[in-house]
Amino acid sequence: MTYATPMIGDFVTVSLDDQTLGLPVLRVHDVLKLATVTRVPGAPPMVAGVMNLRGRIVTAIDLRSRLGLPRRAEGAKAMCVVVEHEGQPYALVVDGVGDVLRLPADRFDPSPATLAPRWRAVATGVYRLDRLVLALNIDALFTDDLAAAA
């Protein structure tokens, strides 16, 4: 999904491979180090497993797997950004978490046609800073058509 009108907003930046993503700050409930994750037999590869977050069971989604990226190097540290989708908490496993940024509308562009389909399927657009920041549509991560795009 892309938006033709400029968007301004506050985003939590995360890194995934060499890409910087912006998650809408109002959708982020927690940021934490990747804790013990229990694998779920028969779950799709994108489901890293489940974890206990203050007594609540949270499904951990490996964004590398969800977006068709190579696996994280063995022993590489990871972080989780907890978001809610349809009333359920999910921990999005990312490579790292950056800053909270207010991204100005005059730096926003709709997703370019040359953007890889796996990124275009989840981006609302891009912000041109000293690097490109993809504004992520969190709900798009949970759609079936994303698997086909990745």
SSE inventory with pairings:
Blueprint (H helix, E strand, L loop, with lengths): L8 E8 L2 E6 L3 E6 L13 E7 L2 E7 H4 L12 E7 L2 E7 L1 E8 L4 E2 L7 H4 L2 E6 L3 E5 L7 H6 L1
Parallel strand pairs: 2-11, 5-7
Antiparallel strand pairs: 1-2, 1-8, 3-6, 4-5, 6-7, 9-10, 10-11
Provide a descriptive summary of the structure in words:
The chain contains 3 helices and 11 strands. The strands form 2 sheets. A 6-stranded mixed sheet has the order 8-1-2-11-10-9, with no helix packed on it. A hairpin with a 2-residue loop joins β6 (79-85) and β7 (88-94). The radius of gyration is 15 Å and the shape is globular. Helices cover 9% and strands 46% of the residues. The longest helix has 6 residues, at 144-149. The chain is mostly beta strands and 150 residues long. Mean pLDDT is 87; it is low at 1-6 and 145-150.
